[in-house]
Amino acid sequence: MAGLQAARVGRERATFGGDGRSLCGELPLNLCVSQWIWHQFLPSFRAKTAISWWYRRRVSDAPRDAERPPSSPASLRALGRIRVLEALYEWGRLSRPDLTRRTGLSRATVGSLIADLMAAGILSELGTSRAAELQRTGRPARTIGLVPTAAYAVGLDIGHDHVRCALCDLGGEPVSERSVEQAVDREPDQTLACATELVAEAIAGVPPERILGLGVGIASPINPRTGMLCAEAIMPGWVGLRINDELGRRTGLTAYSTNDANAGILGERRYGAAQDCADVIYIRLSCGIGAGVVSDGRMLLGSAGLAGEIGHVPVVEAGAICRCGNRGCLETVASPTTIAELLEPSLGRAITVDELLDLVHLGHRGAIRAVWDAGDAVGRALAVAVTLFNPQLVVVGGELAAAGDALFTPMRRAIEHAAMSPHAANLQIVAGALGDSACVRGAAALVLAQAPQMLPALSG
Description:
The chain has 460 residues and is α/β, with parallel strands linked by helices. The chain contains 19 helices and 13 strands. It has helices at residues 2-15, 29-41, 49-52, 73-91, 96-103, 107-119, 130-134, 188-203, 243-251, 260-271, 331-334, 336-342, 344-347, 353-361, 365-389, 405-418, 421-425, 438-448, 451-454; strands spanning 94-95, 123-128, 142-146, 152-158, 162-169, 174-181, 211-218, 255-259, 280-285, 289-295, 298-299, 393-397, 428-431. The strands form three sheets. It has a five-stranded mixed beta sheet with strand order 6-5-4-7-8. Strands 11-10-9-12-13 form a five-stranded mixed beta sheet, with helices on both faces. It has a three-stranded antiparallel beta sheet with strand order 1-3-2.
């Protein structure tokens, strides 16, 4: 308590004149003290908040130049800009009264900060909201929102068999997107060169100061403490690589990274099927299979970043040997490429995953049976996760999600059969809304989560 009192006295001397008035003319004493506390403790989260911001929406990184307590009107004003931008990033379009309530700043301060940010091209007036138009008294308040083209983030999705890159605006909408087939697992140098080329192509013509950074979703667990890929059996050519450092060096952009399934759930929670859902499992059924788990609004990463590796849960006793070294893993029976291979003997030729899905939609009995069996295996594996985490929603992404009811019906039945009845009773299982773009948009969202702290630099 003595430390807080000393801080209060120091803040009063730094911020107030002899007549007790604020020299900056903006923030009262109690708010100055709260801001000092905010800046003292928030920087300790710097290395961990790129993902957790989404699940503790009031938590965000402090910019590097704000790690010391603000002691001047300029620094307090910069802090006010961050508060306004955080509110708009979290809630979208807001009126000036709404911003005043959500930021705790005075009406005059909010108006002044909005004017600054509008002059810098970061904010704009969007007209009145539908709710405001329906109010019966008074003039509807005009809303303020971020200008989507004020800044951009680059997203990379590095799967087992592809590299996808997208340039996204502040609203998370892809401005450009391109995917290239690539044998990723054993070719890190070629893959990184391909990724670097795609990034350079995406940002060509955009002023460098408008690029906030690079987000990466990769088909490998990442140790959250060391930043190293835990890829010994999954992507053997990538063992020990620090993906942020390597791509940062190659592209010149600050890089943030996470597992591809975690990137997928970030995308679906921010822009897709899981918006406003605090308990959700996202499962990606692609060349590799993985899951992202959000429980009570928090991403579960595990002590070494290995949480959610559902593709390596055994589901078939004495099944095929998996690349992880175990036998009968879910990935050996439910990845789209494995399912397509099952049809080769009856069709007399190899088929692609796209052809498999076409056969399912055309009613081909063999294709439907192969996908149905895979769906049953996925459901049995998910039943354990459903019992453990009690989600309200399961979002299915990856190529196999396009199989529709041939996949979802056996999944639901297997979960209902194996999970506890209360867990399965109100569970929804839906296809992802973002399709193949879920991971790349979620990767860009890692960067955009930092936008409120980065954007004030554009306003001078």
